[in-house]
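[09:14] KT: can someone run the structure on this one? pasting the chain below
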Amino acid sequence: MAASSAYAARQTAQLGSVSAALTFTGSYPKYKDMRLTIKRGSAVTYSATVHAQLCGMFCSPGSTGGRSSSVKVIHLEPGAEPNVVLNLFSAGAHCCTIEQVFSYDAATKTYRKAQYDFGDPGATLTDLNHNGRFEFLTADDAFAYEFTDYAGSGMPIEVIRFDHGRFQNVTRDYPGLIAKDAAFWLRIYHRMAPSYQDSVGVIAAWAADEDELGHSALVTRYLNQQLAAGHLNSALDPVQPSGSKFLVRLQRFLRSHGYLR
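[09:31] RB: done, structure tokens below
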């Protein structure tokens, strides 16, 4: 549940004996006094001012409108103990969603914090394996602005799992989702016919998905066909190039980001 006003807000969540409350004052763009409190039963096991270095100069609750909560209690890791997830926003035209995950440490009887910057795409908590454990379903923000402007940038699917206190990229565990995403980007690319104006951002996302699936030979063959047809165009050429120079840049980028095996 969540409740908020221009002055003060309290957002809460609970699962079993674990409950969490986020409190803050103020309104956009000035939020202050953000504090997260976590209880196990009636005992307070964590209470601290919210701090997220990844937010930079500005940090706000991810949800402030009263319809949803910025804090969730949910199962991310193996075992019976749920995690607390705090959603934060750093503001800016295309930035940035920060997820903080709090895990109970029985040795110290308090919670350890880890955080991840999901950039502009943000993330959706989804139980992809239908096993009661949730993953972060997102897209790779590294593709934003890489080959063209933001509006023309495609961002391939990513799945991030939180396990034993760490965020892990497990996208390749979900080939069906990758294939579906690749088909989506290819449809968008074909809709750009006949001019294929500013098509490089979209086809880059398709290539990344297919390379994730191990289809590098297919990607090379298809992109060479599109090059010969004059379809690989950037609206920002020569700063972000078209044609054969785009292909060189794309391959270097995909290799450096782990898409090419």
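[09:33] KT: thanks! The first strand starts at residue 2 and ends at 4.
[09:34] RB: yep, looked fine to me
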